[in-house]
């Protein structure tokens, strides 16, 4: 995959960061708004695909490696499994009482990020898992016909 023209690279440079920020917004607010981890992860992976298209696979592989994406995907899957299945209610309560997710919500407080219990952290892990998996697929497909040493 070869790099594109200067115009495409310039537009990519302008749009890449807003795409990542929008994807993160969708992931973080996914349990209280339409969207979620899957949609936000695909949005972020689309931004990564845009970099591969604009700059070419050889240049983009300097920023994103398949090993890093595979490791990120594996870590997110393991953490999701631990929080969802092994941790149970005690881990959920521990996560909610930390400064990261705020105090335990009392009653219904729609619109607050901590209103979903562990759904918020699980949503973030799903977003990381999806963005890493789709990005890994993009990296592997960009290596089609090349030496696959990475």
Protein model, in words:
The structure is a single chain. The protein has 150 residues and is mainly α. The chain has one domain (6-142). 67% of the residues lie in helices and 0% in strands. The chain is built from six helices and no strands. It has helices at 6-28, 37-55, 57-60, 66-86, 88-96, 119-142. It starts with 5 loop residues before the first helix and ends in an 8-residue tail after the last helix. 29% of the residues are buried. The mean pLDDT is 78.
Indicate the percent of residues in helices.
55-70%
**Distance, first to last CA:** 15 Å
Report the mean per-residue pLDDT as an integer: 78
Helix count? Answer: 6
**Unreliable runs:** none
Give the H and E element order.
HHHHHH
Structural class by SSE content: mainly alpha
Describe the sheet with the most strands. none
How many extended strands?
0
Task: Categorize the overall geometry.
Answer: flat
Approximate strand percentage? under 5%
Short description:
This protein is mainly α and 150 residues long. Helices cover 67% and strands 0% of the residues.
Descriptive key words:
flat; 6 helices; 150 residues; 67% helix; mainly alpha
Outline the secondary-structure elements.
Elements: H1 6-28, H2 37-55, H3 57-60, H4 66-86, H5 88-96, H6 119-142
């Amino acid at each position: 995959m070869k790099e594109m023209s200067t115009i495409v690279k310039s537009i990519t440079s302008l749009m890449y960061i807003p795409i990542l920020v929008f994807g993160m917004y969708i992931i973080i607010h996914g349990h209280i708004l339409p969207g979620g981890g899957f949609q936000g992860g695909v949005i972020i992976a689309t931004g990564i695909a845009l970099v591969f298209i604009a700059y070419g696979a050889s240049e983009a592989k300097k920023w994103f490696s398949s090993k890093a994406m595979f490791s990120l995907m594996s870590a997110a899957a393991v953490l999701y499994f631990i929080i969802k299945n092994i941790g149970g209610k005690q881990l959920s309560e521990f996560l909610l009482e930390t400064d990261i997710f705020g105090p335990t919500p009392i009653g219904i407080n729609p619109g607050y990020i901590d209103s979903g219990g562990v759904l918020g952290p699980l949503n973030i892990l799903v977003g990381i898992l999806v963005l890493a998996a789709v990005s890994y697929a993009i990296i592997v497909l960009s290596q089609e016909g090349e030496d696959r040493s990475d």
